[in-house]
């Protein structure tokens, strides 16, 4: 009897080891970072083999890079899941009385070096949305460039001080909340109480750029929020975060990716100096004369990116759908390759 029990236990252990080895072998081609090309937007996926499990982080259109709820292999397919809640009913005091926890399932398959993905997303009404997309492996980030040896072209003034020549609103049916007067570019996305929400647009340069140094001044009212997108891919956060603990969502951060090493914000309503260098997928940010990000590697796009492709030229774009903000003295000096 004891021998039979031991043999059964041995078979179970051997099966678990064999299945784990198969999972490791099948996940290997997925390991690393992936640019996700979504319908009308961009995403990012990182897959990691930990000691005893598979892990994954995901960026889906906007927001932050977040850990997935689960990651596992289903045959040769990688599956990751995320969860979100739907409030179905409330009581008279608006307290939730019935909540569903929906599991979003992302399935990834490889065909050669091409990733093909599918999101199955349950909806509040019981239906299901299916989103199909593709992915491409992101090459590793190389060593940090020596910025002391970088050569810059002539500085280009991106504001003429009089009108929005050289800029345009991103997206159809977006309202323009941007004006320029006396050299100051201001966004004022006013919402009228009791009226339908107005969808204001982000503002981008007509011209595109590769690597560069960008200098500007920004003034953020209390509680307001904007962002400076480099090449339309990477967002340097603009936020009234004066006095708050260090965070990857604070002023000068690479949104949800790189936390400033020190707080250098000024109080709301002050003009602040921002000096940004983007070179070989590395970022340096000097805020009000203090270096808060020092030639750090960028691992992928940020939420709101126009594309997941990090190897093409793109515009400078300023986030205009969040809050009131003013910019002035925007000058860019392209890096000469």
TrEMBL record:
Residues in 3-keto-alpha-glucoside-1,2-lyase/3-keto-2-hydroxy-glucal hydratase domain copies: 155-332
Single annotated GO MF: hydrolase activity
Pfam families (alphabetical): 3keto-disac_hyd
Protein's name according to its UniProt entry: DUF1080 domain-containing protein
């Amino acid at each position: 009897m004891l021998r039979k029990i031991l043999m059964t236990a041995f078979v179970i252990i051997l099966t678990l080891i064999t299945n784990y080895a198969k999972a490791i072998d099948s996940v290997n081609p997925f390991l690393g970072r992936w640019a996700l090309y979504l319908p009308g937007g961009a995403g990012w996926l990182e897959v990691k083999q930990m000691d005893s499990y598979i892990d994954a982080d995901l960026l889906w259109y906007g927001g932050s890079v977040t850990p997935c709820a689960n990651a596992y292999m289903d045959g040769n397919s990688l599956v990751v899941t995320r969860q979100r809640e739907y409030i179905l009913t409330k009581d008279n005091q608006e307290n939730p009385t019935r909540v569903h926890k929906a599991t979003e399932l992302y399935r990834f398959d490889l065909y050669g070096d091409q990733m093909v993905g599918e999101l199955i997303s349950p909806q509040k009404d019981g239906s299901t949305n299916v989103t199909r997309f593709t992915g491409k492996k992101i090459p590793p980030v190389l060593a940090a460039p020596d910025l002391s040896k970088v050569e810059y072209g002539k500085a280009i003034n991106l504001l003429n001080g009089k009108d929005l020549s050289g800029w345009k609103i991103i997206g159809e049916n977006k309202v323009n909340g941007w004006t320029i007067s006396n050299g100051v570019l201001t966004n004022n996305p006013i919402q009228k109480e009791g009226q339908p929400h107005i969808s204001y647009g982000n503002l981008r340069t007509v011209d595109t750029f590769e690597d560069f140094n960008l200098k500007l001044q920004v003034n953020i009212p209390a509680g307001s929020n904007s962002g400076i997108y480099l090449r339309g891919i990477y967002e340097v956060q603009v936020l009234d975060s004066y006095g708050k603990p260090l965070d990857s969502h604070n002023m000068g951060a690479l949104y949800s990716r790189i936390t400033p090493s020190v707080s250098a914000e000024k109080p709301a309503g002050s003009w602040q100096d921002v000096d940004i260098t983007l070179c070989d997928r590395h970022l340096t940010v000097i805020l009000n004369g203090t270096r808060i990000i020092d030639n750090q590697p960028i691992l992928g796009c940020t939420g709101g990116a126009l594309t997941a492709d990090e190897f093409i030229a793109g515009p400078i774009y300023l986030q205009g759908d969040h809050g009131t903000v003013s910019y002035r003295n925007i000058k860019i000096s392209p890096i000469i390759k």
